[in-house]
Amino acid sequence: MSNNNSTARQPRQGLDLGRLLLEGRAFFALIAIIVIFSLLSPVYFTTSNLLTMSSHVAIFGLLSIGMLLVILTGGIDLSVGSTLGLAGVFAGFLMQGVSFEVFGVVVYPPVWVVIILTCALGALIGAVNGVLVAFFKVPAFVATLGMLYVARGVALLMTDGLTYNNLGGDPALGNTGFDWLGFNRLFGIPMGVLILAAVAILCMLALNRTPFGRWVYSTGGNDRAAELSGVPVKRVKVAVYVLSGVCAALAGLVLSSQLTSAGPTAGTTYELTAIAGVVIGGAALTGGRGNVRGTLLGAFVIGFLSDGLVIIGVSAYWQTVFTGTVIVLAVLLNSIQYSARKTKQAPSPSASPQAVTNSS
Amino acid sequence: MSTDQSQGVATRSCTDEGQIGEAILSARQIAKSFGNVHALKTVNFDIHRGQVTTLFGENGAGKSTLMKILSGVIQPSSGEILLEGDPVHFASTTEAQHRGISIIHQELSLAPNLNVRDNIFMGRELVGAMGVDFAEEERQTRLLMEDLDEPIDPLTPVEDLRLGQQQIVEIARALSTQSRILIMDEPTSALSASEVEVLFRVINDLKRRGVSIVYISHHLEEALQITDHAVVLRDGSMTAYAPRQDIDLEWIVRHMVGEGFDLGSPPEGYALGEVALSLQEICVPDPTIAERYLVDHLSLEVRAGEIVCIYGLMGAGRTELLESVAGRLPISGGQIFLEGQNVSRLSIAQRIEQGLVLVPEDRQRDGLVQTMPVGQNLSLASIGDFTRGLFTSMSREAQVIEDSIRSVHIKTDGGDAEIGSLSGGNQQKVVIGKMMATQPKVVMLDEPSRGIDIGAKAEVFKLLADNARRHSLAVLYSTSEVGECLSIAHRVLVMSRGRLVAEFGADVTKEQIMAASGEAVAA
């Protein structure tokens, strides 16, 4: 059926090292970081340190995965850092007890209710972003930039700029267990990391195995073509912002649980770290290209790098310089990879007549 | 628009001395290979001063490679180019431009946000003592426009111009750099008939001034009107080179495809079914002008198994009609019935589910997701059919993809191939295959043959005819090439200014169709 091309075909050149390095760059970067810091510091490569670093990564990882979904559709979500902060404050507010003055009662919701309500808040913030972008055609950058300010402002208003410190709950009120999210371990692994793993697996399945995933990729690749193929483009766009908001709320819960306090300024500039994770993971900011595996690697690269620099005692100023350099380098490699793909398109190599396998 | 009139004496002052008709640019034994692929094999021809030389050939025949060599984008592997008898070697387009060779690409390279004057002097602004000398630029632009007999104000933003006028601006820019040879790639593909006329008048005018034109077009009849010489390429070889008086349409096609070609005939030997698609008084308002309709109270019916062709010029409202029926454009009045059921209020996705699909006109913009491989493009519209519960069945998807590749004859390495690795014709088949995979009852195709070669065209039409016969598919396609009306269609409808102005059976002639649409334009 295929391959009656009249032009001569070139055989595929064997596995080329440069290409391998380019495509697996996030992975190799992570290995390099671990090796280098292990040589520089004896404590770096110990189970306890790796777990500690991983629970830091969990925060960025959750934000990055939500961000990935948005970026795959060709959008961007700048509000995740503020959403994280607001979610933490909101959870803290609920833990302090909600007083209904009309009835003269103070309600102390149990922790699971707090978690659900906080996630709902994240979803609501995302829904506002999504509706602005999909239905009112506000550019994603502007809509979510506005939300960045609004969410942060609300968090500051709720606390008057102060921090909720007492998140432990009271056994008498039946709302203990909030620290469970940040401190508890299952099989020796911090809960935050487990939550990240669960979210990552769910997203991977959603992206690779469900129509929704295909819709996300096609919306980012060419939304006009997707729409004419029957893809509900607008609903897909709203959905990714909602999911990003939920991821940010989860990250907010994990962070405030780890710190056992919720401050209104938590998560400032985290949206940029999240974007960096996605980009280092090989996703294209123009949409349509990227995956969860790469994004996770990207989040680990950033987390392990900055923690490593702390451990070997490099000044915080230098950390910023290093992180910035890594990000630019990653984007540079992205454009090399995608432009190589474009020039390769001419007469396609490979002579295997038919290889209808599916991967994404 | 006869071609002989301009071959006589130059009526205006020529920018170049010398006799019209002599070879200005000659290709001698030009060959180009990319690795093992021989894109061009020993091509020999002359471009004559003040005449039009047309390159004919299917997609992939080597036209663009040849054009790129002439304009300095790439260098030939062997052979030489003689400019007025001297061998020349262009290392870049700037160098070629310096020697008077300009190229006007299919996708115009104008900045839409700037005005005509700024576009013409883009990159080589006239700088005076007080910065850019806008007054002088404007004066020169005005002169150029007068020369071309096109009253375009130099201060009009380019985005406000019609496509045909934009092309004229591009020609003016080439002339302002003293170009003696203009290469035009598919200049008429997006123009209306009247704009084509203007373009041809400009070309004839340029010829009289001694400018030589290299012309590339898929539109054979149109190109024959304007050309003085024909170069025909097939599979990288030059198969023929002859002056206009020695050739006709059949001669070109014979040399292009190597054999007689046939776009098919209406499928026969079966009874048409019930009415599958019925449009009643469809209206699509013009977004720019109130009280005007792009589609004006239009009604038509297509029966199961029937193939109907809508012929119309650019701007007749064909695209708007088909897009509104598919659900992309809202209608302001009228109703759409699919097998008797009113679908006017359904979303695009719901209409696809009901069996009403559209293959859009512009496959790059509306048809393909370039970031996805061939297979995922093919399964995009039908993905719900092989999803059980939450998850998509990968094995069933692979099966659907494989079936699609086979049933629409896509030449590809498989479902994992990059969409960009396919030729235009095969990309078009992917878009058609994607919609066919939803097992539609009615398929609408907007200019299904746009930008694909004759071989692929014939295959696409054969595919539609087969589906109409075997699966009682109702087919409604639009075209702006008369030749395509006379192929598989049982009925030909002529559309003009948002209305149907004529209806013919399969025995219609080209002249009847053109007369019907021509009258309508004059009205």
TrEMBL record, chain A:
It is found in: Cell inner membrane. GO terms for cellular component: plasma membrane. Its main location: membrane. It is a multi-pass membrane protein. GO terms for molecular function: transmembrane transporter activity. Coiled coil: none annotated. Belongs to the binding-protein-dependent transport system permease family. AraH/RbsC subfamily. This is Sugar ABC transporter permease. It comes from Halomonas salipaludis. The lineage of its organism: Bacteria, Pseudomonadati, Pseudomonadota, Gammaproteobacteria, Oceanospirillales.
Automatic annotation (TrEMBL), chain B:
Residues 25-260, 277-522 form the ABC transporter domain. This is Sugar ABC transporter ATP-binding protein. It is a peripheral membrane protein. InterPro entries: AAA+_ATPase, ABC_carbohydrate_import_ATPase, ABC_transporter-like_ATP-bd, ABC_transporter-like_CS, P-loop_NTPase. It is found in: Cell membrane. It holds the Pfam family ABC_tran. GO terms for molecular function: ATP binding; ATP hydrolysis activity. It comes from Halomonas salipaludis. The lineage of its organism: Bacteria, Pseudomonadati, Pseudomonadota, Gammaproteobacteria, Oceanospirillales. The keyword Cell membrane applies. GO terms for cellular component: plasma membrane. Keywords: ATP-binding, Cell membrane, Membrane, Nucleotide-binding, Repeat, Sugar transport, Translocase, Transport.
